[in-house]
Amino acid sequence: MKPEVILLKNNRKGFTLIEVLVSIVILSIIAIVSTNFLQSSLEAREQGASKLQNVKELNIASSIVRRDMRQILNVPIRDYFGNNLKGNFIADASSNSIVFTTLVNSSFSTSRVRRIEYLYQDNAFIRRQYFADNPYSYEEYFETILLDEVTNIEFSYMINSKWYALWPIDIITKRKIPELVKITFIKNNLQYDWFINPNIDYVYKK
C-alpha cells in the first residue's frame, strides 16, 4: 500500500503594491495633519505666553509710575549748587523726560525722599532713581528699563482742563503739580494711554 501524500495549498495572499502605496499615502496625510496641528498648538501657546508677558510688563510699569506720582512731593527741585531749578515738577518736551520728588520704599536710608526721572531713550521707557532728593551728582542713580521696544511716546500735562506738552508753563505753575499726567505710547503695534492723577491739590508755599 502506497503512502498517501497530502498537498496543502497555501491560500494566503500578500499586500499588493497599490495597497502598500495607499497605506503610505494615508499614513503620510495623518502625519502631516498631526504635525500641523501640533505646530499650530505650539505657536498658539507661544503667542499666548508672549501676550501674557506683555500684559504683565505693562501692568508692572503702570503700577510703578502711578505709585511714584501718587506719592509725589510738591517741593523745590535744586541743582547740586543748591539753586532752585525752573519748577517743582519739570517736564521737558525736547528730551522727553519728567523730573520730580517723591516718596519711595527704602530700607537702606532714614529718608524716603528721592528724585525720580522718567525718560524715553533708545526706544525704551526708563525710570531713574537718584540716591537723594537733591543729589550732588547727576551720575549717581540706578536705572530700570520699564518697557522696551516702545515708539511714539508722548507726555502731556493738564491744568484747568487744558493739556500742555511741557511743565511748568508759566511762573504760577512753577510751584504747582499737574492735575493730570497722560503718557501715550505704542508697543507691539498697539497704542496705550495712561492717565495718572498725582493726587496733590496744593501749591508749594515757602
What does this structure look like?
It is elongated, with a radius of gyration of 34 Å. With 206 residues, it is α+β, with helices and mostly antiparallel strands. The model has no long low-confidence stretch (mean pLDDT 84). The strands form 2 sheets. Strands 1, 2, 3, 4, 5 and 6 form a 6-stranded antiparallel sheet that branches. Helices cover 26% and strands 31% of the residues. It contains 1 helix and 10 strands. It has a domain at 66-196. It has one helix at 17-70, and strands at 72-73, 90-92, 97-103, 113-121, 124-130, 141-148, 150-159, 162-164, 180-187, 190-196.
Distance between the termini: 139 Å
What is the count of β-strands? 10
Overall geometry comes to elongated
Which parts are unreliable, with pLDDT below 50 for 5 consecutive residues or more? Answer: none
Would you tell me the structural class of the helices and strands? Answer: alpha+beta
What string, H for helix and E for strand, traces the elements in order? HEEEEEEEEEE
Proportion of β residues?
A: 25-35%
Total helical elements: 1
Radius of gyration: 34 Å
Biggest pleated-sheet summary: 6 strands, antiparallel
Roughly how much helix do the residues carry, as a percent range? 25-40%
Mean pLDDT metric: 84
